[in-house]
Amino acid sequence: MTNPTTTSDTPIDFSALRLQLSSGSEKVQQQLIQQLATLGEPGLEVLMDFLLQRRDRLPTWIDGKIYQILHRSEFSPAREFLQTHFPAGIVTLRSQSNIDYRTLQQLLIEGDFQAADRVTLQKLCELAGSTAVQRKWLYFTEVERFPILDLQTVDTLWSVYSEGKFSFSVQRGLWLALGKNWEKLWAKIGWKNGNTWTRYPDGFTWNLDAPVGHLPLSNQLRGNRAIAALFSHPAWEKREQGAGSRE
Length: 247
Known about the structure:
Elements: E1 6-7, E2 10-11, H1 14-23, H2 26-37, H3 40-53, H4 61-72, H5 76-85, H6 102-110, H7 113-128, H8 130-135, H9 140-144, H10 148-160, H11 168-177, H12 182-188, E3 192-193, E4 196-197, H13 224-231, H14 234-241
Antiparallel strand pairs: 1-2, 3-4
Helix pairs in contact: 1-2, 1-3, 2-3, 2-4, 3-4, 6-7, 10-14
């Protein structure tokens, strides 16, 4: 059996990999994370150290990817590390409305995007109130009243655990880049093909092979007024103004 800490009889310099991981670009970090995940316990230890160093920063999908790798590993110190330092996940679950997002975080950690999408809809309805919970869909006026902090929490969860591919803010960015053209957006994110809406649920792609912005779906938002209210929500302006700082 080949020693995972050597390549062609050449020892792997984990100190160099550690330095590259800390100082490299996002693209370099992505490549190194994948490499370290294949290098056994020493590689996982580098990832644990890196994640701990970043604990006081706003989490990004880089942190989420490392967390998922450690969470899925059979290396017991990695599980113990996560339980000690990140017992509920990498994202702090803030809510102005006392909404519990723990189930959503766990589903996204596991990569169960279809179940996470259903829970996202449930949580948005909880934000809107008991009538929306019973109705199971939203009026645009209810979307407008969503608390900023809650919408940012849901958005961060999706982004962090999807390698940055899925979130409302990603969808909004595409919409703006397409000149706020809804038909172009529907096609871009795979919600519509020509004049045909993608059929729920089997027509959608519930993994990272999906187009950027494909999820969260939250099917009720495909009406333009509700999703326009979502994309115009002040949560995104606040996030853009405060980018790079922890609230």
